[in-house]
């Protein structure tokens, strides 16, 4: 089997040694690249061929060693499989679910496009970071390759997912032309979830970027290589609680805006403001493709009439955008970040965990993620 057109600049050939006779028996894998780059991978698990492409690899280039734990799976790659007898040694479900085109005894699997979601609200304390972290974890649990970008200088999403904050590990440097976003990708405890952390220096970017050219499109430019790599089906951006330069950059880079809206009256006033900002972004030609992906109602208190009234008010004005799932106000959702855990690790049977699982299912269905 010979695979070519792999969407990773480090790879020019991807040669797999396998037993063609048994569809669930694969041999060792050798990844080859030009120059002195060597890729070493363990044998494919004979019982789990569908996990092909999820190894923790060590990429050696000259004297530097780069650890890379995110290798796109069949679902998120674009390559051509060629074999004289037109046989794929292993038929993982991810391959079967892809749109396939047969040409001259070749199997063409097109790349699955990355969708960028930004979770924003200029009001703080509405469950925005909690939603970003737990939604990303829920999608990863569904084996959807997800990248979470912490764009908030307080780095709450970084600590909430259990990653230690480090100086120089954020988008501050890349936003100023120093390095790339890909270099900042950090693995997490979840197989299908990666993170670009944040740090306090990002607060200075609010002022510094305003003095540069194309300051609203910096993030979009940084994310293009990640989107084209095919390594992630979903990219989720957690924004600061304001409509400053960083939040506007996230809107300029996103395909869809998800609004986390607290079930309180004051939150309704902020909803109109953020929708007007979306229209300004589109009118100015900064991101004509930006759409409102949906409204997530958070901190719902079943004991109060106010929560129900706010939900009904949003349904009346945005009936096709509000998600059916409402996130309840629970102490478990508030406690989980202090332990560096998602709600699924902290209390998987809690109402909050159930709500975010249901929200992930809605998003998968609404945006065709599977």
Main traits of this protein?
nine-stranded antiparallel beta sheet; alpha/beta; disordered N terminus; 370 residues
Helix percent reads 25-40%
How many strand units? Answer: 17
What's the overall average pLDDT, rounded? 75
Kindly, what is the distance between the CA atoms of the first and last residues, rounded to a whole number of angstroms?
A: 26 Å
* Approximate shape: globular
Structural class call reads alpha/beta
SSE string, helices as H and strands as E: EEEEEEEHEEEHEHHEEHHEHEHEHEHHH
Rg, nearest Å: 22 Å
Percent strand equals 15-25%
- By oligomeric state, this entry counts as single chain
The number of distinct helices, counting runs of at least 4 residues, comes to: 12
Strand order of the largest sheet: 6-5-4-3-2-1-7-9-8
Which ranges are low-confidence, i.e. pLDDT below 50, for 5 or more consecutive residues?
1-109
Largest sheet: 9 strands, antiparallel
Structure description:
The chain has helices at about 95, 130-140, 155-160, 170-175, 200-210, 220-230, 245-255, 265-285, 305-315, 330-335, 345, 350-365, and strands spanning about 1-5, 15-20, 25-30, 40, 55-60, 65-70, 80, 100-105, 105-110, 115-120, 145-150, 185, 195, 235-240, 255-260, 290-300, 320-330. By secondary structure, it is an alpha/beta fold. Strands 6-5-4-3-2-1-7-9-8 form a nine-stranded antiparallel β-sheet, with no helix packed on it. An eight-stranded mixed β-sheet has the order 12-13-11-14-10-15-16-17, sandwiched between helices. β8 (about 100-105) and β9 (about 105-110) form a beta hairpin. α2 packs across α12 (about 350-365) and α6 runs parallel beside α7 (about 245-255). The chain is globular. The chain starts with a strand and ends with a helix.
């Amino acid at each position: 089997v010979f695979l070519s057109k792999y969407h990773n600049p480090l790879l020019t050939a991807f040669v797999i040694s396998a037993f063609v006779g048994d569809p669930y028996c694969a041999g060792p894998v050798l990844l080859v690249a030009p120059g002195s780059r060597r890729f070493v991978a363990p044998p494919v698990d004979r019982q789990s061929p569908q996990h092909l492409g999820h190894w923790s690899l060590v990429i050696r280039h000259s004297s530097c060693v780069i650890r890379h734990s995110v290798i796109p799976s069949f679902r998120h790659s674009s390559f051509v499989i060629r074999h004289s007898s037109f046989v794929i040694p292993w038929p993982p479900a991810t391959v079967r679910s892809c749109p396939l085109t047969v040409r001259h005894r070749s199997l063409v699997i097109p790349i699955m496009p990355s969708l960028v979601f930004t979770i924003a609200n200029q009001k703080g304390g509405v469950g925005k970071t909690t939603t970003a972290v737990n939604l990303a974890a829920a999608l990863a649990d569904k084996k959807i390759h997800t990248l979470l970008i912490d764009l908030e200088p307080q780095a709450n999403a970084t600590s909430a997912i259990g990653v230690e904050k480090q100086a120089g590990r954020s988008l501050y440097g890349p936003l100023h032309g120093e390095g790339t976003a890909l270099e900042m990708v950090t693995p997490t405890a979840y197989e299908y979830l990666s993170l670009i952390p944040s740090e306090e220096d990002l607060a200075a970017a609010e002022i510094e970027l305003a003095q540069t050219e194309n300051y609203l499109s910096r993030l979009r430019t940084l994310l293009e290589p990640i989107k084209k790599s095919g390594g992630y089906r979903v990219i989720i951006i957690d924004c600061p609680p304001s409509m400053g330069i960083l939040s506007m950059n996230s809107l300029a880079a996103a395909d869809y805006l998800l609004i986390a809206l607290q079930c309180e009256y004051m939150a309704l006033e902020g909803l109109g403001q953020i929708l007007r900002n979306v229209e300004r972004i589109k009118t100015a030609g900064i991101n004509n493709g930006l759409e409102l992906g949906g409204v997530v109602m958070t901190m719902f208190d079943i004991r109060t009439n106010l929560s129900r009234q706010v939900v009904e008010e949003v349904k009346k004005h945005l009936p096709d955008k509000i998600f059916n799932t409402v996130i309840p106000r629970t102490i478990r959702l508030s406690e989980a970040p202090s332990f560096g855990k998602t709600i699924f690790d902290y209390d998987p049977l809690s109402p909050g965990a159930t709500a975010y699982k249901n929200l992930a299912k809605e998003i998968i269905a609404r945006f065709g993620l599977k």
